[in-house]
Amino acid sequence: MMIPTATYRLQFRNGMTFDRAIGLVPYLKRLGISHLYASPIFTATTGSTHGYDVTDANGIDPAIGGRDGFERMVKALKAEGLGLILDIVPNHMAASLENPWWRDVVENGEKSRYARHFDIDWTRRLTLPFLGDTFEKVLDAGEIAVKADPENGKPALAYYDTYYPLTPASYAGREEETLEITDRAAIAGLHDRQPYRLMSWRDAPRELSYRRFFEITGLAGVRVEDDVVFDDTHRLILELVHSGKVDGLRVDHVDGLADPKAYLEHLRHEAGPECYITVEKILGEGEHIPGDWPISGTTGYEFIAAVSDALVDGRKLDELRSAYEKAIGEPVDMETELRAAKLLMADNNFAGEVSTLLNIAKQVQSVEDPGSALSEATVKTALRELLVAFPVYRTYGTREGLPPEGREMLANVLDKVRNGPNPPEDAALAFLERVLAGNVEPVAAPVASIFRTRFQQLTGPLMAKSVEDTLFFRQHMALALNEVGAEPLPRAYSLDRFHTEMRTRLERQPDALSGTSTHDTKRGEDARARLYAITEAPDLWADAVGRWRGMNRSAVRPLDDGPAPEPAVEWMLYQALAGVWPNDLEAGDAAGLEALQTRFLAYVGKALREAKLRTNWGTANEAYEQAVMDYARTLLSPGNQAFLTDFVDTLRPFVRAGLVNGITQTIVKLTAPGVPDIYQGSESLDLSLVDPDNRREPDFGMLRQRLAEREKLTSTQEEEWQSGRLKQHIIATLLRVRQEAPTLFRRGEYLPLTASGKRADNILAFARADMDDAFVVVAPRLVINALHTGLAPSRSERWAETEVALPERLGNRRYRDVCTGKVIDPKDRIAINWAFADHPFALLLAE
Q: At what angle do helices 301-311 and 495-508 cross, to 10 degrees?
């Protein structure tokens, strides 16, 4: 298998087409990328901004150039010796009439040849939750009528511009007569004869008849566990792999599948042993990818969490937590908050899925023990507690039951539930344990298998929506820690943990992607790196927030349900603004402030609704949202100069420390175990916010020009750090080194190195070693105090009396700094003030 040396994630759509990508190929080659990593390219709904709403799995989207454009791009990539990795979406497709398979199901119901392609409960009519209100109210308002579908002239139920096809049996031989129906009762009767039921979008959480992606009703689950469905949805994918046009596949949301292992084995068998395969999978604390999955690893969310161990000052988190609690006026119990978020999801957003599980459990009871004394309420309580207690996305049980690691996980969860503050009836827990483990009577095994699958497909979405899209928008102590893949409960942060994680990564998934920004991360990698510095100076940050709140007190609006914004949201606003603030934005730059305000307000609106406290996506609290938006506008108003001047001045040390963190983070990604993945534009500074902000198109013209001029760069000049040129230069330099020594960085040992002396705590050092090859990394960390006066002069004095010891296999060798070309002979230790003489990091390749 050919393993990439580095990938570059490109987001197609939003202006990015295959032909535009062709223009970037020389740049990617020069940067040092081995593979373009493309977002989904298959035909998606009209106007799709991301491509995950696929309407034709076997067509390449005309909106980005179609098959011809794709072929041109592949030819251009091959001409430069670059490969291609595709993001594929096996879990779901668009529940859209633009999707011919879905349209056929809507029209023909269970008789459709695609009725089993989608995960639909056919014990009832297919629910279509796309009305603004109930069918009855929409009908009474005259918003639904019988009209001819403009595409084929057949009778349809027209709702504004959407035409829901009528099943042929409901109008056979009466087409003209049907088209003349205007009586509302007759329209209702016609609707009742359809295999589908039109309903309000608000009723979807409780009444949906098909599995969806998370809580997005417009994305219907696909049954790729069925061989026919797999073949139908992978025909083009496999054709592109077998033809050599595609070298690798990134599997989206693998945990949503009925049986991830079986799917990946099927995919590996069909794609062949040479295809590079990674999966989007979030690993919990201490969790690892199952060793028997035939893949190279994950797409790297856990790598972000590991890097935070090196850049977060874990010794001061309690101080920051105390400052946050003082500011908001109450203590924070994250375990209680996590439980509340999970209960919200289980009782509201995923109420329908929980109800489905309960009904399946009742079926098991009726088959296995018709006279069971367990009540429905008792089983529901136990099921609810079990879902809420799950600490990872899912287990990986099959029709036969749970594998050993799954049984161990289930036993731990059950123990936690039984000994927790809300223990349900033990008999109900024991019943659910038997069902999940597969220890039921043979007659009940088929139904128990369905329960197991559905349970496992629900725990992941429930965890994701509870943590990433609820809790992380409610608790704001340190926004940098609220990231995809991050642990929601407080944990320790240390350099030792980082080194342990890197050794584990080398052992378990050395060929996994190592990402620091993606299209799904909560903020760009450099915004996160800057906000890490807040953990180093909690007193400085807390004092500043208190001062800023005082300056902007008049912008807080009293509402019936409390002040807007409340103190916790004020803290969040200042920290989010600190992360996104452009390095070169001055307090008096009105145009710059206006541009930032547009982006910032979009983030604020999303953050408030995702928190689901005083407003949410389903029921917006307009008064509250407007008040908080007005407060955010005040922060960025050119007339608010006292605050803006103070904010910019206070931010300076955090900006400087963040720039250093960003460089260290980049160096680690490019030299530690794993395949470095560069998200589009993040080779320069990435100070983006959550999507859609992080999906904006980068200034590729500027990036190309800077790369062409990189020989002129002087890393001691602060402007090179501030502009992102240094970061891009380091990436290009290290990617070239990786290409020259691929085995060293793929299989070479990971050796933590120990610093000693005055600034030992401010040094991260490790080496990669393989046979006679070796590469030593020395980079700064926790530098807000060490670099408080700036990045330029007196570096030797700043790092005096600090050194890194070299073990025997690394010592007494000549090394060349790959950035400066300087050759050194450090003997058995590296003096940091000497190694950092040209720039505050050392990247040393053994000669």
A: 150
Structure tokens at 366: 């009726």
Helix axes 445-467 and 351-368, enclosed angle (nearest 10) = 160
Token couple for 119: 């995960």
- Which helix (DSSP H) or strand (DSSP E) does residue 60 occupy? strand 54-60
Q: Which of 514, 498, 50 is nearest to 298 (CA)?
A: 514
Mind listing the pLDDT tens digit for each residue in 497-517? 999 999 999 999 999 999 999
Q: Which of 203, 136, 152 is nearest to 144 (CA)?
A: 136
> What three-state secondary structure class fits 345?
helix
Backbone angles phi, psi at 428, to 5 degrees: -70, -40
Residue-wise pLDDT tens digits, 298-356: 999 999 999 999 999 999 999 999 999 999 999 999 999 999 999 999 999 999 999 99
The Cα 510–Cα 4 span in angstroms is 11
Residues written for the chain: 847
Q: What pLDDT does residue 711 have?
A: 61
Report which secondary-structure segment, H or E, holds 618.
none
pLDDT band at 251 (very low <50, low <70, confident <90, very high): very high
**Average pLDDT score over residue span 765-777:** 97
Eight-class DSSP state of 314: G
**How many angstroms separate the CA atoms of 682 and 524, rounded?**
8
**pLDDT digits over 573-592, tens only?**
999 999 999 999 999 999 99
pTM exceeds 0.90: yes
Phi-psi region of 604 (alpha: psi -120 to 50; beta: other; left: phi over 0): alpha
CA dist 204 → 101, 230, 344, 413, 458 (Å)? 21, 27, 15, 29, 15
Q: What is the DSSP letter of 40?
A: P
Q: Give the C-alpha separation, 188 to 146, whole Å.
A: 10
| Distance in angstroms (rounded) separating the CA atoms of residues 367 and 360 | 11
Question: What's the mean per-residue pLDDT of the chain?
Answer: 96
Distance CA 485, CA 304 (A): 8
Separation of alpha carbons 721 and 161, rounded Å: 52
Per-residue H/E/C for 510-579: CCCEECCCCCCCCCCHHHHHHHHHHHHCHHHHHHHHHHHHHHCHHHCEEECCEEECCHHHHHHHHHHHHH
How does pLDDT run across 638-682, given as a tens digit for each residue? 999 999 999 999 999 999 999 999 999 999 999 999 999 999 999
DSSP 149: -
